[in-house]
Amino acid sequence: MKNNHCTQKEKAEQFHQYHVKGQPLLLVNVWDAGSAQTIQSTGAKAIATGSWSVAAAHGEQDGEALPFQLVLANLSRITKSVDLPVTIDIEGGYGRSVSEVKQNVLQIIEHGAVGINIEDQLPHGEGLYSVTEQCLRLSVAREAASEAGIPLFINARTDLFLQQVPEKHNEVLVNEAIARSEAYAEAGANGIFIPGLQDQHWIQELCDRSPIPVNVMVTSNEPSLRHLATLGVARISYGPYPYLQVMENLKALGQRILTGA
């Protein structure tokens, strides 16, 4: 679908409409303009970056190691090269203070994005922001969107389940995730992203109880997309998996060429 005639605001409104419980939006995460154009050509509804992949493609580690100006430049190339709504993973917002987060979100919108992922993990994996502090950060992101006049889709990522091995995922963690989902929704988030959670029972519990659409991340074909839909998931993304797959294919090609196979 071509959206050249669509304004940024219209693309943002479209992107909101794609989040339907039980009919999940599929996002094959990209890392640059070339990969974005390739995914657009497959019939995708929207384009989503993955911070891990973007960092790796620039020779950096994930965790806000890539300078923010490079993040913006990469985003600008992506939004100018495709017609689809673009959402960007901005990790923790590239700022500890709410004023930094707000300014960064304003710049993200200026560079064409209609959605963001913003996580509650403290920089360098030192635990999570408190609910209160993360809500302040989400609130200023919403303020930035309001000032820009763009209905930005804020996908609030919680790293609760990444901080524990899957064997330790339990009702206590799920209840905490639901509490965060409720608080984040009140602060202006439009979706809750729960990477790391694999247990189908707990995924369904979250989908049943969350006031905002639930996004899961998969790295393989299990559980099936159809089954995730029946659990009530509204958005499915693939994180670094597409980049890793492409790099494996490139490596195999290089080996065949260089060994004369």
UniProtKB/TrEMBL annotation:
The lineage of its organism: Bacteria, Bacillati, Bacillota, Bacilli, Bacillales. This is Isocitrate lyase/phosphoenolpyruvate mutase family protein. GO terms for molecular function: lyase activity. Keywords: Lyase. Gene3D superfamilies: Phosphoenolpyruvate-binding domains. InterPro entries: ICL/PEPM, Pyrv/PenolPyrv_kinase-like_dom, Pyrv_kinase-like_dom_sf.
